């Protein structure tokens, strides 16, 4: 055993998890290591630990979600926190209350954390400035989705071992994906090489300068990347959902065209597995089978899709633990004075 | 890390490694003899090794549990299940310090239901770690009996808890620090006392 088994390694955790950038490499490592221990709770007969007893977590979801919301709720409940779900539709927001008034109203009740999904990029950052509670970003617009990136990294590590020096290709609708930005940050901090693949119309504007600054690769040629023609062979392939609501936006002419160019089709899968049987395939879900990923690929032995869902609870338990269980550190800069007024 | 606080640290291993070596109270040979005696006591109390499960409390309790299991196997010839039980998520002082990453919990395949579980830790101090361990254990099943074996009992209990098997009773002042070093983590086996009034 090495010194790293010492229980005294402590990384200072941020007060909020708004962006993957809030966690440095050490904090990411701590969260993923803790998630591995939390995963064991999932296999127990009694899935309950007392760690967050007496804490109240509000899941505030202004956009639809199955896995993120339920896994945050399960994670909180397994750790004995009281979790309450509020959706945009059923809340006073539908009567015209502003986001600020909604969160400050709930905050005034004395809750400990908000888990927020919102359609507007930056909404969680704003909320963090309005409330005393901790804020966890569960997806804001096309900006970030840090816990998804953490569970992706966790799932890939379980299969591949360390991601240091590994090559991860992220393929699909980069322009509208909040998963991409978070994943880029976490994967790079864990030492992986990242290549982003998308048709030119689905690349966010200004991505060239971003790639240059942060040192990741861009490509429009999926087959070239998969065959290792542009750099080293791919160890992990992350397929992003093509958001059907974009179909009418003129980003590509037909679904068929997208699939031919950028879908993980059966022939591509066969070729890929023949090159590297150890490759892993991820998809943050929900999947459009037959569009960005074929049914064969989704259910292949190389597919980690269900492992990702399973890891989602463990990773979120870890995040809740590190943000909420420790000492109440004085807030720096985010607390608004007289917020109870 | 606040080794001075009377509230429990997980084990004495959390004392500051930068301090001087202090007074050695147990050497490697003493620790070995103490463990062999504890192994005998466990077998005597249990009337053999049937139904025994040893669970070490991370970090230093785990290698101690493994050593005890090896000694018992040497005496009795039969393998006994050994594992680890992390208590991080059950601590009563979580809010008093920054969070720490939990250590692995490994319950042997035999489980703990109906077994005699011997919890093993390096130092018994406030008793809060053991309380947390009892809570953690209850979430894994219902042992027939739970016993406690520690290498050092340094007193200053804050809860009504006592050890069944003790390597050495060590009267200490609360200002002193007891440090257990084990070859599994450190350069050699030893128990030292540092600090306190001189």
- Strand order in space, largest sheet of chain A: 7-6-5-8-9
Strand fraction of chain A: 5-15%
Oligomer: heterodimer
Structural class of chain B: alpha/beta
Q: H/E series of chain B, N to C?
A: EHEHEEHEEEE
CATH superfamily membership of the largest domain in chain A: Aspartate/ornithine carbamoyltransferase
Architecture per CATH nomenclature, i.e. the level-2 architecture of the largest domain in chain A: 3-Layer(aba) Sandwich
CA-CA gap between termini of chain A? 54 Å
Q: Which range does the strand content of chain B fall in?
A: 15-25%
What is the tally of helical segments of chain B? 3
CATH architecture of chain B: 3-Layer(aba) Sandwich
Spans where pLDDT lies below 50 across 5 or more residues of chain A: 1-8, 330-341
> Going across the major beta sheet of chain B, what is the strand order?
3-2-4-5-6
> What level of helicity do the residues of chain B show?
10-25%
The major beta sheet of chain B can be summarized as: 5 strands, parallel
Measured on Cα atoms, how large is the radius of gyration of chain B?
16 Å
* Average pLDDT for all residues of chain B: 89
Structural class of chain A: alpha/beta
Any overview of this molecule?
Chain A: Carbamoyl phosphate binds at residues 67-68, 117, 145, 148, 285-286. Chain A: Belongs to the aspartate/ornithine carbamoyltransferase superfamily. ATCase family. Chain A: GO terms for molecular function: amino acid binding; aspartate carbamoyltransferase activity. Chain A: It catalyses: carbamoyl phosphate + L-aspartate = N-carbamoyl-L-aspartate + phosphate + H(+). The complex is a heterodimer of chains A (341) and B (198). Chain A has helices spanning 25-42, 67-78, 99-108, 123-130, 146-160, 178-189, 207-214, 222-226, 255-262, 266-275, 295-298, 305-325, and strands at 56-61, 82-87, 113-118, 134-140, 167-171, 193-197, 217-219, 236-239, 280-282. Chain A is of the alpha/beta class. Chain A has two domains: 11-145 and 310-325, Aspartate/ornithine carbamoyltransferase (Rossmann fold), CATH 3.40.50; 146-308, Rossmann fold. Chain A has a five-stranded parallel beta sheet. The longest helix of chain A has 21 residues, at 305-325. Chain A is globular and about 55 Å long. Chain B is built from three helices and eight strands; from the N terminus they run βαβαββαββββ. The longest helix of chain B has 19 residues, at 28-46. Residues 1-19 of chain B have low confidence and may be disordered. Chains A and B meet through α1 and α12 of A and loops of B.
